[in-house]
C-alpha cells in the first residue's frame, strides 16, 4: 500500500502544542514508544526509525490549556504496519491503565485516546485496499464495535510493547472546521484532494491516490466555531509532502486562484485552510 510515499502526496509531519514538555516526552517516549530525534529548547522531534520526524511537540511561551468548542485538531492518526502491532498495543494500554475507545471503520481498526494535554490520538491499522468497498467515488466507512476477541488472536506470543515499529507512519489528520463549503473548495480545488466520503452535512473525508482519507474535516464543534488562541494546546501545523517542486508550484498556484493565503515562512511555504488550520507545503 503506497498511500504514504511519493508520488502520492501524504502527511509527513504533525506539530502539536503541549503545556509541559517533560510530561509529554514521558508519555510519547515511555508509553507510546517513540524515540527523540532532536531537541531544541522547547521543541522535540519524535521518530520511530531514527531518520523521519513525523510528530513534533512544542511548548509555547505562555501556553494555555486546550480550548473547547474551537476549530483545530480533532485527532491525528498513527498508522501501524500490522494487525499484530495493534493487538499488542491494546494489551500494553490495559497493563498501563491507559483509557481508550475503539472502532471498526470497515477500512481500518482503530483505538482512540488522549495525551496528557487532551490532544486526541488515533492509532490504527488498515485493512488491505482489496477489502475496501467503493461505491462510485466514495469508499464505504462506518463506526461499529471493534472485535477485540478476534483482534487479540493476532497478538505476538510475548505480547510485549516497548517501541513503535520502525515503519509506523502518520496516517491521517482529522480537523474541526467552522464550515464545509469553503473548506471543500480549499482542499479539492486548492490542495488537489478528492472527496472520498461524505458524512451527511457534518463531515468530509479527503485523500490523494484513492486512500480512505489523508484528511478528515468536521463541524462537530459547531458551524461558525472560532479558531483557538495562538498559545492554546492543540494543533500548530501539519505538513503535506508533494512529489516534486512542480507539483508543489502547481498547488500553490491553485491555492492562490481560489484566494487562499500562501506565503513563505522561514524557508517553508505555508497556507491556511478557511478555519485557520496551518499547513506546510513540503517536497
UniProtKB/TrEMBL annotation:
CDD domains, per the entry: VOC_BsCatE_like_N
Query: Would the keyword Metal-binding be found if you checked this record's keyword annotation?
Result: yes
Instruction: Provide the transmembrane region boundaries.
Output: none
Family matches, as Pfam families: Glyoxalase (PF00903)
Q: Which UniProt keywords apply?
A: Metal-binding
> Among its keywords, does the record have Repeat?
no
Specify the superkingdom: Bacteria
Sorted alphabetically, which Gene3D superfamilies does this protein's record hold? 2,3-Dihydroxybiphenyl 1,2-Dioxygenase, domain 1
Q: What residue stretches are annotated with the VOC domain? A: 10-126, 169-283
Alphabetized GO MF terms: lactoylglutathione lyase activity; metal ion binding
Q: What is this protein called?
A: Glyoxalase
Annotated source species: Cerasibacillus quisquiliarum
What does the record give as the organism's lineage?
Bacteria, Bacillati, Bacillota, Bacilli, Bacillales
Amino acid at each position: 500500500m503506497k498511500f504514504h510515499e511519493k508520488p502520492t502526496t501524504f502527511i509527513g509531519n504533525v506539530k502539536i502544542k503541549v503545556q509541559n514538555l517533560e510530561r509529554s516526552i514521558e508519555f510519547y517516549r515511555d508509553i507510546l514508544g517513540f524515540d527523540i530525534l532532536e531537541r531544541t529548547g522547547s521543541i522535540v522531534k519524535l521518530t520511530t526509525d531514527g531518520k523521519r520526524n513525523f510528530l513534533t511537540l512544542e511548548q509555547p511561551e505562555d501556553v494555555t490549556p486546550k480550548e473547547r468548542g474551537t476549530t483545530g485538531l480533532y485527532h491525528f492518526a498513527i498508522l501501524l504496519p500490522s494487525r499484530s502491532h495493534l493487538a499488542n498495543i491494546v494489551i500494553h494500554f490495559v497493563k498501563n491503565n491507559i483509557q481508550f475507545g475503539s472502532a471498526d471503520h470497515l477500512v481500518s481498526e482503530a483505538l482512540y485516546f488522549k495525551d496528557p494535554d487532551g490532544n486526541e490520538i488515533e492509532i490504527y491499522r488498515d485493512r488491505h485496499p482489496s477489502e475496501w468497498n467503493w461505491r462510485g467515488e466514495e469508499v464505504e466507512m462506518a463506526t461499529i464495535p471493534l472485535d477485540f476477541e478476534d483482534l487479540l488472536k493476532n497478538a505476538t506470543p510475548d505480547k510485549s510493547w516497548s517501541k513503535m515499529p520502525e515503519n509506523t507512519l502518520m496516517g491521517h489528520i482529522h480537523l474541526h472546521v467552522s464550515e464545509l463549503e469553503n473548506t471543500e473548495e480549499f482542499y479539492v480545488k486548492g490542495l488537489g484532494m478528492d472527496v472520498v466520503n461524505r458524512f451527511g452535512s457534518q463531515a468530509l473525508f479527503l485523500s490523494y491516490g484513492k486512500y480512505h482519507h489523508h484528511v478528515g474535516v468536521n463541524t462537530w464543534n459547531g458551524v461558525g466555531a472560532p479558531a483557538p488562541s495562538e498559545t492554546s494546546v492543540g494543533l500548530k501545523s501539519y505538513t503535506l509532502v508533494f512529489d516534486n517542486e512542480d507539483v508543489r508550484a502547481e498547488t500553490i498556484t491553485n491555492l492562490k486562484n481560489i484566494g487562499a493565503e500562501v506565503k513563505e515562512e522561514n524557508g517553508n511555504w505555508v497556507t491556511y485552510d478557511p478555519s485557520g488550520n496551518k499547513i506546510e507545503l513540503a517536497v
